[in-house]
Amino acid sequence: MVRVAVITGPGRVEIREEPQPVPEPDELLVAVDACGLCTLERRLFSGEKRLYPVAAGHEVAGRVVAVGDAVRDLAGAPRIGELVTADFLTRCGSCSACRRGRTAMCKRPQGGALSDGTITMGGGLTDMVKVRARQTWACGDAPVEHAAMGEPLACVAHSIRLSGVRAGDRVAIIGVGYMGRLHLAATRALGAASVGAVDISDVRRQDARRANASWVATPDEALQRAGDQDVVFVTAGVPGSLELAVSLCDAGGTVVLYGAFPRDHRATVDPDALHHHEITVVGVYSHEPEDWRVAAGWIRSGALAGDLDALVTARFQLDAVADALTLVAGSPVYRVLVGG
Could you list the residue range(s) of the whole structural domain that residue 136 is in? Predict the structure, then answer.
């Protein structure tokens, strides 16, 4: 049997027992060493998102403990003992989005179920998971904390790829929480000429400055740099952020809407300005296999190691998952990890 954490209501989580997963021929069995808690888990535990009971957790890293027969001796497939990061999306390959190569937009519902019917949204807050070999990526000698950031890094790789950002570009990031900081680290590593950080929080602005942001500003202060940026990433989907991002763009610039906005929010943007200045607005959501290759490369190479170290707020064992979720729901954090 294995343990799995199930969120049963606002402020409530319990550890249940499940039969140990058995890998299919094309799957691996991974002993979970760390699982990151993201916005989804925070919203479930705080009651902002009411979908109970649910086994959450999709930012998983651990070591391979069993390998299916079909991939046991396959060159490139992770081997027993290797540290891997895991992709939990179930891309169907058959819907219109998948057929166009836009598998992040797969139209088939995601998720699965435990043995008692409890839905899973990752289900990575557990001792062991089984994952298709093609959706696991070896991380070499990287710390497990870094490997557990594979999924958010894949999202950032997707964001950067769709943005078209290039070495030498001037970049601004609106919102430098965890995902904003990952954008900061990745665009710096890619050779951006400058990367500015915009946030209402003085603490996060100062943290971004220590992380080598080229400049930091409040939203009002950022207006002094209007027209000076080539790519603006919006990782905090709050009222006014789209308008600010468009105003920061130089002619030919790109705004990337990475962060989720409230569903009922509406923005006002001058379409004629977008037309005459050839400003592109791109929506970004989730990740695709190509992005995992990039994310795993960042982790394995150590290219972002210092930045990733700084983003680990706390670690908890699985039996202390309630404490971890309480911290995430009640305090500003970057990443809290659970496992082991």
Answer: 2-149+311-338
Cβ atoms of residues 222 and 248 within 8 Å: yes
317: three-class secondary structure by DSSP: coil
- Give domain status of residue 69, yes or no: yes
What mean pLDDT is predicted for residues 41-59? 95
Domain termination residue (choose one: 264, 283, 302): 283
Summarize pLDDT for 4-43 with one digit per residue, the tens: 999 999 999 999 999 999 999 999 999 999 999 999 999 9
Q: In terms of Cα–Cα distance, which of 29, 32, 17 is closest to 62?
A: 32
Q: Which amino acid is at 208?
A: A
Contacting residues for 179 by C-beta, under 8 A, at least 6 apart: 152, 155, 156, 235, 258, 259
Number of C-beta neighbours around residue 189 at 10 A: 13
Maximum average pLDDT range among 89-93, 195-199, 269-273: 195-199
Rounded to whole angstroms, the Cα distance separating 188 from 236 reads 19
323 by Cβ neighbours in 10 Å (0-12 / 13-18 / 19+) ranks as middle
Same domain, 13 and 87: yes
pTM of the model as a whole: 0.96
Strand 215-217 versus strand 229-234 pairing type: unpaired
- Which residue has tokens 């649910």? 54
Task: Compute CA 162 distance to the chain's CA centroid, rounded to the nearest angstrom.
Answer: 15
Residue 340: per-residue pLDDT: 80
pLDDT digits (tens, 9 = 90+) for 70-95: 999 899 999 999 999 999 998 999 99
What is the full DSSP assignment across 3-46? EEEEEEETTEEEEEEEPPP---TTEEEEEEEEEEE-HHHHHHHH
Q: Answer whether residue 300 is part of any domain.
A: no
Q: Give the confidence band of 233 by pLDDT, cuts at 50, 70, 90.
A: very high
Whether residue 148 contacts residue 60, with contact meaning beta carbons closer than 8 Å, is answered with yes
DSSP letter for each residue of 267-301: ----HHHHHHTT-EEEE--S--HHHHHHHHHHHHH
